[in-house]
Design goal:
Helix content: 25-40%
Number of helices: 12
Oligomer: single chain
CATH architecture of the largest domain: 3-Layer(aba) Sandwich
CATH topology of the largest domain: Adenylosuccinate Synthetase, Chain A, domain 1
Number of domains: 3
Distance between the termini: 22 Å
Bound molecules: inosinic acid
Largest sheet: 9 strands, mixed
Radius of gyration: 22 Å
Shape: globular
Structural class: alpha/beta
Number of strands: 19
Amino acid sequence: MSNKNVDLLVGAQWGDEGKGKVVDILGSEVDVFVRYQGGANAGHTVVADGQKVVFHLLPSGMLYPGKLCVLGNGLVIDPEQFLNETGELFSKGQDKARLAVSPHAHVVMPYHKMLDKLQEESRGKGRKIGTTGRGIGPCYVDKYSRSGLRIEDLINPDVLRERLTYILEEKNQIFTKLYGQKPLPFDEVFEPARKWGEAIAPYVDDTRALLRRAVDEGKHVLLEGAQAALLDIDHGTYPYVTSSSTSASGAFTGTGLAPNDLTRVISVVKAYTTRVGEGPFPTEDFTEAGETLRKNGGEFGATTGRPRRCGWLDVPALKYATELNGANVIALTKLDVLTGMGDIKVCTSYDRNGEKVTSWPTDTRVLSEFKPVYETLPGWDEDITECKNFDDLPENAKSYVRYIEEVLHTPVGLIGVGPDRNQTINRGI
Ligand code: IMP
């Protein structure tokens, strides 16, 4: 019998489902925390003992001293962000030896961030993606066009010098000829990068082998997805997506673990829907209700501070995400935000020029023509932020949870009823 114990935690909407909090709750039983895709575009908020910490790059498990935290090969790592986040944590006495960085992860260089901004500006009105400006897309482009710098290049000054010389030549052609910018002087890029390499080198390790050993020894490994299924580069609302594989399958390319290592997929679903940046969002609510969700849910981007677009639960979208991720169990977050909202709307299908559509379309451009068809469920006014057990919840809140379980054919194992670690109903996740 297999003694494997590998959980994968993924978002089911457009990100910001509250994954950081769920990781944090599971944390005390986890031995190894892993991030495997994306970069500092993520913003995982953890509130512990009333103190709020936001991680952009490091795994949320960093708050548990002594555990192993891994940044896998699928990540794009901004060295400045890495050093800021580790510096801040370790100055508070965190055990340094427990963080391992893959030599195969790619480096987000300053020119990636510059390109991200220039590309967004040049896209013009109606074509912008609304990126976080963290250089994610341009860095993944370089990875796939094989002109990227990996962490293993960054920590070797000779290789860094050699590769950066011709990479920068090409980038400078783009900056000067396409965008009319000044070229970047080599030394201004090389010198800081060399120092970042020096500072990161002690953390670099063969993360694939570390994880292989941990899995084979039956350690509890938690693969911590960033962003979410509907932002997936292949399966999301392209081109309004991020540049990595955010649904379950990305966990394998991003770590070197194999699909049969996985024992469980936890899908994180927010009790309503939000989206940051551009792109289709059928259940977006432009009325007072959307405003209330934003205010009560504190729906402002953890990375960019942008107000999030808010709306109701979208069942066809969630069914699609649940299938994509192969979810075994749902962690339902922010149920308390629906308190006092009156009737709760849930989109069960779409109306496309009089035609009823019940499933998520392959061509997501047509979503802008879809009108959501809502079912109305009764809401509740009682404060649920102190509820510790499912039975403590008001009847209508319980029905809402059961409704989600039924339509998604997946049990809800955890319910968030407030921002703090303790404000959680654990039904045995
Ligand atoms: P990028 O990842 O910065 O390239 O941005 C691409 C799209 O993904 C934009 O719409 C961003 O707002 C969105 N996005 C990226 N990271 C996150 C996240 O962690 N939460 C929510 N949306 C995100």
